TrEMBL record:
GO terms for molecular function: heme binding. Coiled coil: none annotated. One of its GO terms (biological process) is cytochrome complex assembly. InterPro entries: Cyt_c_assembly, Cyt_c_biogenesis_CcsA, Cyt_c_biogenesis_CcsA/CcmC. The keyword Thylakoid applies. This is Cytochrome c biogenesis protein CcsA. The chain crosses the membrane at residues 12-31, 43-62, 74-90, 97-117, 137-163, 222-245, 260-275, 287-308. PANTHER family: CYTOCHROME B_B6 PROTEIN-RELATED, HEME EXPORTER PROTEIN C. Keywords: Chloroplast, Cytochrome c-type biogenesis, Membrane, Plastid, Thylakoid, Transmembrane, Transmembrane helix. The lineage of its organism: Eukaryota, Rhodophyta, Florideophyceae, Nemaliophycidae, Nemaliales. Pfam families: Cytochrom_C_asm. HAMAP family: CytC_CcsA. Belongs to the CcmF/CycK/Ccl1/NrfE/CcsA family. It is found in: Membrane; Plastid, Chloroplast thylakoid membrane.
Amino acid sequence: MNWNMVHNTLINTSFLLLLINLITVWTTIAFPKFIWLKVFNKWQVIAVNVLLSIALGSRWLIHGYFPLSNLYESLIFLTWCLTFTQILINKQIKSQLVGAISVPIEVFIVAFASLSLPQEMQKASPLVPALHSNWLIMHVTVMILSYAFLLIGSLLSILFLLITRGQAVKLQGSSTGYIIDNSQISNAPWSSSYNNQVEISKQQLSQKPYSKINLLESLDNLSYRTIGLGFPLLTIGIISGAVWANEAWGSYWSWDPKETWALITWLIFASYLHSRLTKSWQGKKPAILASLGFFIVWICYLGVNFLGQGLHSYGWVS
């Protein structure tokens, strides 16, 4: 059996399903009455995750190590993590927003890995001596899974900023309601006696489930919870990487470019969570910080490797 052909078929089928899912998920947003499409979207994502699991698992069995030896394998695993995160979040909420923002990223990643990378880079290569360790699974998989959570959480914050562009919106988290600028609701049925600000109680919001403020509340909370899941994983990944580095290179921390940007990523999202927990920032300010984290994660994940510098440059881009 030609395992390379089987692997390519699995990846190409996953790409096709993601492309179809990209169309159908935006269709359900434009036409929310198509309930059957929402169920179809859910099973499409599950099918993609299963296909990628088979592709990665077969590669693992054939070559005898977890498939994270090069950029191609890492991108495929990142796509698996993104679909896995999407499935987990979809179990908690009945919304197509997560798919609408994550599926385009997944399509781009699979297309880049399959079509842009040379065939030589897509082939499995023997592990370098430093990677012959059980820490490979512990460190790298946890780091990439944390990237998936952080990327989706950051994308939700970017969506929050796009919806509130040019508008003064201040969410008050766990307080009794939300305060927004009066100009934003001057035409709304509940605006009346307030001059500059209007407080909308949660009871009123529950009676208007499709209101813009309710949407903003959902995006803000979902972004916070998703990043809250990714941050502990990032912390565990950095700690396990330090232990592995001490075993492989004799030092827990060497200020390698990858390590430095991992620390910057950790500080960005630690600041975001600190601002949310202390309630010193609400609404747009933490969303801007999380949006910045989206680009920082990509620099940490890919940017450093494209430079080809540091101890983490092997197996990626020469």
